[in-house]
Write a structure and sequence with these properties.
360 residues, 2 domains, alpha/beta, 12 helices, Spore Coat Polysaccharide Biosynthesis Protein SpsA, Chain A, 8-stranded mixed sheet, two-stranded antiparallel ribbon, globular
């Protein structure tokens, strides 16, 4: 009797967690595509919050210059937030508009976004696209977002992909995690649900920004604002055709530092933590004499992660990194669990392999 209660007590929540991944993964097989239109009509302000990003910013601005979208309908606005380097000068050298903000007592990306959105809305764009200063867009990103807004969307999240899957175990695990998020986001969108905001690559219509002003200032400002949108009845659509490429921390220590900051989004938002719980529940199920049920859970979750790994691509280098992934995932789970009860800093910084730094 005790074994039965223990098995069911562990396996039922684990099953619900797996279904939370499996259902959208299957639904996403029939997702809607947003194909760029021949004559796009919407105007965009690309808002780039930057804190000491002189090293990374040029690559971001070059990707914006290469967009296949009418240039007269695009405005690039860089917010140099409490910078002590040449971020503002770099932005202006590339032809971007730059506003500098110096408020040491109000630090953090959320404050930078509030400042930038206020400036952006003065020009009444149809939508504002938030892009981190160390990220790049694919050339058709704005065209795809224009198509999404033309289809009735009020807020759209672009697909966020890792650009450095080969740079160590941290980079590979982050790349698989990003692919997993893309799979489930496409499914939730196909099911008519709102998808999470990712902090970068989020496009917000002017009407939404006027109706739901930005007042998210926590370390997980994207999750905070997404919750406000849900309460306001605004559905966030997912656009796989608009792609944002970001470099994740390649080292495990730096990746843990980043995830420690993100832990404020909630324990259930942590895939490593959920995965660890499911594996533990499966082990309890086996020990209590249950075979088919835990085996089915393990198989389903394994297939989902195999699909994510396949989406990233398998090479000889990545096969070696895959063997190290379980240890990295376990460490991330413990880090998330421990950090959930501590308040992280607002602008957490992670070293990049090239010597630059990024806002994690």
């Amino acid at each position: 009797m005790v074994a039965t209660v223990a098995a069911w007590g562990c396996l039922v929540p684990a099953t619900l967690a797996c279904l939370g991944y499996l259902v959208p993964a299957l639904a996403g097989l029939r997702r809607r595509s947003f194909v760029p239109r021949r004559r796009p009509t919407r105007t965009f302000t690309v808002l780039v919050p930057a804190h000491n990003e002189e090293a990374a910013l040029p690559r971001t601005l070059r990707s914006l210059a290469a967009l296949r979208y009418p240039p007269e309908r695009v405005r690039v606005l860089v917010i140099a937030d409490n910078c002590t380097d040449q971020t503002a000068n770099v932005a202006r050298a590339f032809g971007a508009e730059c506003s500098e903000r110096a408020e040491p007592d109000r630090r953090g990306k959320g404050f930078a976004l509030a400042f930038g959105l206020e400036h952006a809305l003065r020009h009444a764009p149809d939508a504002v696209l938030v892009l981190d200063a160390d990220c790049e867009l694919n050339t058709d990103a704005l065209g795809a977002l224009d198509a999404a807004f033309a289809a009735g969307a009020e807020a759209v999240q672009a697909a966020v992909q890792s650009a450095n899957a080969d740079d160590g175990p941290g980079g590979f695990v982050a790349a698989v995690g990003a692919a997993f998020d893309a799979i489930t986001a496409a499914g939730w969108d196909a099911l008519g649900c709102s998808v999470p905001l990712r902090g970068t690559g989020m496009a917000l219509g002017r009407g939404v920004l006027e109706r739901v002003p930005w007042t998210a200032f926590s370390a997980v400002e994207d999750a905070e604002y997404a919750a406000r949108l849900r309460r306001a009845g605004v559905r966030v659509r997912y656009c796989a055709e608009a792609q944002v490429f970001c470099e994740a921390p390649a080292g495990v220590a730096e990746l843990c530092r980043q995830r420690r900051r993100w832990s404020g989004a909630g324990l259930l938002a942590s895939k490593p933590l959920v995965l660890g719980y499911v594996v533990a529940a499966v082990a309890v199920g086996f020990l209590c004499g249950y075979l088919a049920w835990p085996a089915a859970l393990l198989t389903a979750l394994g297939l989902l992660y195999f699909r994510a790994v396949w989406a990233v691509g398998v090479t000889r280098t990545r096969a070696g990194l895959l063997l190290r992934a379980p240890g990295v995932v376990a460490r991330l789970g413990f880090v998330t669990l421990g950090a959930a009860f501590r308040r992280p800093p607002t602008w957490d910084r992670s070293h990049r392999p090239d010597g630059g730094r990024r806002a994690a």
